[in-house]
Here is the input.
Amino acid sequence: MKIIDFHSHNFPKKLAPRALAVMCEKLEGLDMEGKGGITPAGDGTIDTQLRDMDRSGVALCVNCPVCTYPANFGAILRRAVAVRDGTEGEAAAQRLVQLGSAHPFDPDFAAHIAQLKAAGIPGIKLHPNYQGFRLDDPAVAPFFTALRDAGLFVLCHTGFDPGYTTAPSVAGPNEIVKLLTAVPGLKFVAGHVGGEAGNPVRATDALLQFPNCWIDTAVMYYHDDNAEAQRIVREWPADRIVFGTDYFWRAEAPLIDWVKARRPDPADQELIFHANAERILNV
Here is the structure.
């Protein structure tokens, strides 16, 4: 069966060691639920990602950068186009879908969204904590409206983040509902909500009313036994779930098994592991 990992990360080879060091330093000492901290499964490079995809039987990965400042937009877009066009080799060009990213408070967001569309980038990744905004802020509605009108999807970090354990919710189910009500028709993938969301029981089910909203399965090891995550993956309609791991943080093979154990129906697995992703990516 074809497997697409809809939620992964990689960096330029020269930047990967420093990027991982900074991120791991931020998480050092965290002991989530008494199960230890977080050890990355990969090193953040494309070479290692392709190797691990081969080992896990993953055909395609969607890479998810985040534009933490408006000035980062151009570099992220240039890298996405370069990888797609073969600068990292034929395997990377064929097996990695590099998303773009943009900042909701970028004064030039309309022009930048037009650039993404013209470049053939299918969607963008956002992380409201890192970017300093709330999904339900009326000030960002024009940004999301422009994305919808351009036909770009949004993959947004909407779940638990171990670096923001005491921060107020800025992208939980309530905020997502308000956004998708304000911007109907926006294609929205709620990252982590099928895994380590940390939301109240059944809060995620409020998203079922929006047919263009999907959740992904990205989880960390210490939440594999989370009862609500297991319920969501077991009970949600299969055509509304996309498989995602958050690789390089998470190894793919164990999470593939985790999802299969909760959705044993082959028809459900076809949707979750690749068909839904292909629909969102329009491939």
Remarks:
- The longest strand covers residues 4-8.
- The CA atoms of residues 80 and 98 lie 5 Å apart.
- The radius of gyration is 17 Å.
